[in-house]
# Entry
Amino acid sequence: MAPLNILEALPKLAAYGIYFLLGISFGSVLELSGFGDSRKLSGQFYLRDMTVLKVMFTAIITACVMLYLGNSLGLIAFERVFVNHTYLWPGIIGGLIMGVGFIIGGFCPGTSIVALATLKIDGVFFATGVSLGTLLFSVTVQRFSGLWNASYMGRLTIPEVFEISNGWVVFGVVVMAMAMFYAAELSEQFFGEKRKRLDLVPISRLRLVGMAALLGGGLLTLIVGDPSSEDKWARIPKEEKAKLADREVYVSAGEFIEAASDDALYLNIIDVRDQSSFNLFHFRTAERYTLDQLHTINTIKALRRLPDNTVNVVVSNGEVASTEAYKLLRGEGIINLYILEGGINQWLTDFAGPNVGIEKVVAAQSDTTRDRLRFRFSYAVGDNYPFARLLNMKSLADDLTFERKIKIEKKAGLKGGCS
# Structure
């Protein structure tokens, strides 16, 4: 299922060959659209030539509809598609700088390369300026790193901001694009070099077909709706599901303690038990979530924003609820995710010891399948038990024999740029 990593699926030479052909094809489309001419590009800002808006926005909404419709139909796993991380104020300032440069020079970085390839003098100068500016930025960025890294919001999309379905956003964007195209046609008629009487219905048969296809795609995305958590888990690659089946993601108590004591790691404990069990006993620093809360956009956003060295460990009384939570979170693209082997019941069996006011009770079969706590507590003190503080148990981990399973998977690197 898409997206595919062609660097892993194909030999490197073949993969780089595909990248080369895509680059040549994209540059050719830009040149054929007239984007190698700074006069056509700058005409956008004087409302007399709206080719840039029409070509680029057509590409954007076509990709938008195909991407989200593919996600709704189960052809694309959008949670595995890289989305450029949002830095709000740096993005706004950078956009303003680029916009001014676009108006003055008539190019953006991508179109200047097209002009350079066709040996246009203004393109050569603009591309040279871009290169020098990039070099200057790279050697001075540390002087304003505070601004450069300000207002970080992580992987952020409009559906996440407003907590609405992807379908409504896609359909709204398509409708907005149609209105913009219509306004662009009227603008060219009124402000263009060859001013003419306004044609209030500037729509050809081919344009009608394109509009119908995009509106139909947006409407279908809205009707089909977003995939459920179960759908997302079903899309996980087979090798990921095999890790769960082979118990490669179940970490032992010893490795759990070791991870908490490792300064190179940040251990994030996700406790998915009921409030009563959590109050009786929980690990210090653990955060409690219900399974319903794990479905929410805000929870997923918070987990995605955690540092790259985060190890997420899901905890329940046994393994039933934590395994269900693992599937949900893994389907949402949360990486470095593991399950505490045996859950709290096994932990208390191993470490509670006598004389702490905790008594093990015989578990009925239903208690095992329902993930119930198999201990009776004289009092509820939460994380005030000695064996709830993982940092105090480091010496115990040194004496335990266990298989190390935790492997840090890196997040996708930041990508992007101007077309």
User: Anything to note?
Assistant: DSSP finds 21 helices and nine strands in the chain. Residues 166-191 form the longest helix (26 residues). The domain at 237-399 is CATH 3.40.250.10 (Oxidized Rhodanese; domain 1). The mean pLDDT is 87.
